[in-house]
Amino acid sequence: MNTPAVKPKITCHICGGSFAPVDTRPFGAVRPGVSDLIAQAYPGWELGKSICRNDLSTFRSAYVESLLERERGELGALEREVVNSLKTGQLITQNLAEEDDTEASFGERMADRVASFGGSWTFIILFAVVLIGWMTLNAASLLAQPFDPYPFILLNLVLSSIAAIQAPIIMMSQRRQETKDRRRSENDYRVNLKAELEIRQLHEKMDHELAEQWDRLAEMQRIQIELLEERADDRR
């Protein structure tokens, strides 16, 4: 009975560990920018060497961080979060709608509802009906003794009280909405920055692969030319 051949382990040039071929990357498969960074830290990094996935992820994140520092200066918390997500491969998108609903207190939810109702046509129509009814009852002599005769002092007091209560509630809702908008913009910034960095890495990888293909094609052409020259010499 034939036993399956055991694939030889490959030694990582960085950590010195032995890994299966699928868990390593050879020198030629590493992008030039990352490869230069590895060579600076480990001078022996050259053709024929390999690196494990964990160390490669570390140097990739360091390369991305250096790119951001050159373009944007000192990195903030959001940029470092993006770099860490690239290193770990985790998703960075967040469902902020569900988080806002679960984190909001009872007072904040009530403020949102009051502000939403106060800015609707339903509130405007109901408020107009109440005002017209109030003034009609007290000014058109429909009641024997009007409870708020002209100039409607009680109505002015009620309106002032409603405005005094409604204004801070609306401000509370607006402040919470500003917090939501800021968190959404930060989330969009993280997602866009990560997408930009990943697209840039893909471009570098494609350029690297194309350069290698051109080198291989040029080498094949040189070999073909040599074979043709040898055949031409043999015919002579």
What does this 3D model show about the protein?
- The protein is mainly alpha-helical.
- The chain folds into 2 domains: 8-90, no CATH class; 96-190.
- The protein is 70% helix and 4% strand.
- It is built from 7 helices and 4 strands; from the N terminus they run βββαβαααααα.
- A hairpin with a 6-residue loop joins strand 1 and strand 2.
- Helix 2 packs antiparallel against helix 3, helix 3 (77-88) crosses helix 7 (153-235) and helix 5 packs across helix 7.
- The longest helix is centred in the last third of the chain and has 83 residues, at 153-235.
- Residues 192-231 form a coiled coil.
- Pfam families: DUF1003.
- The chain crosses the membrane at residues 114-137, 149-173.
- Keywords: Coiled coil, Membrane, Transmembrane, Transmembrane helix.
Keywords, please?
single chain, 236 residues, mainly alpha, 2 domains, two-stranded antiparallel sheet, 7 helices
Topology:
Blueprint: E1 10-11, E2 18-19, E3 24-26, H1 32-41, E4 50-52, H2 53-72, H3 77-88, H4 96-103, H5 106-118, H6 121-139, H7 153-235
Antiparallel strand pairs: 1-2, 3-4
Pfam family, one: DUF1003
Coiled coil: 192-231
InterPro entries: DUF1003
Short note summarizing the structure:
Keywords: Coiled coil, Membrane, Transmembrane, Transmembrane helix. It contains 7 helices and 4 strands, in the order βββαβαααααα.
